[in-house]
Amino acid sequence: MKNNKNISKEFMPSLKSLYDEKITKEMIKVFNYSNVMEVPFLKSISLNMGLGDAKNNSKTLESAVSELSLISGQKPIVTKAKKDISNFKIRKGWPVGCKVTLRSNKMYEFLERLISIALPRTRDFRGLPFKAFDGMGNYNFGIKEQIIFTEINYDKIQSINGMNVTIVTSSKNDEEAYHLLKLFGFPLKEKPNKKDIKEVA
């Protein structure tokens, strides 16, 4: 048991190591931070899957929760309507989807799978736009099909579902966040300025 604990403590995701060993240095070069503590970092990644028929079809909700659990490696929570929405015949408190928020090692592990495996499997994928930053250093984008994740067995899904992904950083602005994500290898296709920042090898 003691040896297993030591192994667990020593484990560090490759992207976390990349941040500690190389990305912080590159960010200091670009933005001239006076202290390493000023370097922005990833705080969390949230996955949110909305389901229009969750109120009428319990199997759809169960399937979505199971799929999001496989994708994230963490059990999601069921999201419920905060108010009545008459146009969609939804009442306050009814289930409308599920979500999960990842931090620490699970966040880095998910990001690596997202960058290296899932996004490249997206049909006609050509990168993600800079305009999806929210003005406060966070990035939001949508995934149309959960089947881009290899953890999902296409033959066992109830339906094709999309999800929203929110990457939260400690950046003060979008330009800092852009360079931070770019150095992680995140496939952003637009740059906020003419400076050509290369990904850290």
Largest beta sheet, briefly?
Answer: 5 strands, antiparallel
Radius of gyration: 19 Å
Number of helical runs? 5
Secondary-structure element order, as H and E? HHEHEEHEEH
Q: What strand line-up does the widest sheet have?
A: 2-3-1-5-4
The count of β-strands is 5
Write up what this structure looks like:
The chain has a 5-stranded antiparallel β-sheet with strand order 2-3-1-5-4. Mean pLDDT is about 85; it is low at about 5-10. The longest helix is centred in the N-terminal third of the chain and has 18 residues, at about 15-30. It starts with a helix and ends in a 17-residue tail after the last helix. It contains 5 helices and 5 strands; from the N terminus they run H-H-E-H-E-E-H-E-E-H. The protein is elongated. With about 200 residues, it is of the alpha+beta class.
